[in-house]
Structures are given as structure tokens and as C-alpha cells.
Amino acid sequence: MSDNQIDLEAYLARIGYEGGREPTLETLTAIQFAHATSIPFENLSILFGQGVQLDLETLQDKIIGACRGGYCFEQNGLALAALRQLGFKARGLIGRVRWMVEDGVAAPLTHMLICVEFEDGAYIYDGGFGGIRLTGVLKLEPDLVQKTRHEDHRIVQVGENYTIQADLGSQWANVCEFTLTPQSPVDYELSSWYTSTHPESLFTNNLIVERPSADARRMIFNNTFVERKRGEDQTVREIADVDEMVALLDQHFGLPVEADEQRKVLERFLVPPAL
Length: 275
Description:
Elements: H1 8-14, H2 25-38, E1 41-42, H3 44-47, H4 56-65, H5 72-85, E2 89-97, E3 109-118, E4 121-125, E5 138-139, E6 146-147, E7 152-158, E8 161-167, E9 172-178, H6 185-197, H7 202-205, E10 208-212, E11 216-221, E12 224-229, E13 235-238, H8 242-253, H9 260-267
Antiparallel strand pairs: 1-10, 2-3, 2-9, 3-4, 4-5, 6-7, 7-8, 8-9, 10-11, 11-12, 12-13
Helix pairs in contact: 4-5
């Protein structure tokens, strides 16, 4: 196995995918959904002082071998290798997170996503966005409203910039802004280093865990557990103590926490941040 390859059988088993392997749109869509609902978005490695490494051997050991999750550079880095091994014409892109960011506020290039080319055009694959993760691929066709297993989405274009938007019912919300400029591994290394180490980074100051299921979205953000089942209003409740937090991490995200020092880290996020 080369430096550019992973154990494909192990990856597909990790996401519970047993479908066809021809590099078709149907296959891509099924893998996207399987990945998104199997591998949690999480930044526990950062908070626990374990750091983030983007080489494929480390990603495979962590996400496949240890059954952990990761953030976009880890998840989409692993997925990109898998898609290429399956024969997809795929390349990595980079973008700016606009989810929950006010218009006019600058956002750095800290999100990795994937572009896959077919005869009928390009599609966007994103298996690693924390907060409102895609559960389907999106055709790169501006203003086309596209259904996924959860919300409808669309891509709007202004010049060379594209923005993924999600339909929240009452409004279209920006998710991620990107261009089609190809990226190299060193670009991701730089952005990931900032994201995982900068003292003012979102991921060094907050606990963020997310994973959709077939019929719901669930997320832990610091001391709150957010759940939105299909067809129901979103519920947000405060997590009472570290025992409840550990139970939620295990039950809904497949992330057991056993070490006492790690439980102590989690306790820090049970206190609401000072205003």
C-alpha cells in the first residue's frame, strides 16, 4: 500500500458501506451518506492535547482503527484517498466557513471539501462539516435547489466564489464559501495547524461533536446537547454533569471517554462561557 492509499476494505467496513464500487454518482451519493452517518465530527483530539496529523497512516489508525472521528481535514482527507482508489476523478478544495458567521465578518480558509467530476459536470462532496453536515452530494449548478436526506441545499455563485446554502425553512443559511482552485497537502497542513493550535481558534476553545443519523441531527456544543428529528422542532438542553456528557458521547456519537484526565477536560465545558 503506497503513501497515497488506504486500506479501502477497512474504510468501507468502517462506514458500513456494502454497495457497488463503480465510480458512479449513485455510488458517490451512497458513500457520502454512509460516511456522514458513521464517522462523527469531533475535536476531542485537540482538546485532549493529542494534536492532529493529516498523513494517511495516522488518519487510518485514528478514524478506522480506533473508530474515532475528526474534523474536515481529517475526514475529507481520508475520504479523498478512498474516492480516488475507487476510480473517482476527485480533487480537494478549500473554503471559508460561513455557518453561523454574520455577513461581512471575515472568515479564514479553514474548511476542506472535495470536487468530483463526472461527464455531466462537477459535484461537491463534503463528509466533514461540523454543524450541518451534508448527507448528499451537490451538483455544481448555481441556484439549483437540491434535496439531501435532510435539508434542501443550493449553491450560489458570485464571480469565482461559490457558497453552499441550506434551507432552514424560513431562510437560506450560508454554510461554506469556496472556489474551484485545487489545493495541495501543504495547503491543508497550514490551515489545519492554525485551526488546531491557534489560541483563538474555534476548535481550541470549544467542545464540538456532531453526527447526523438517517432521521435526525445531533450535536454537542460545549454544555448543550442539540437534537433535531426529521419533521420536529429542534430541542436544546443543558448537559447536567460530566457523567451525562460521557454517556451522550458514547450513545449518540460512538466516542467512549474513559480516562480520568479526559473527563476533567470535558468538565471545563460544562460551565457556560462568561459573557
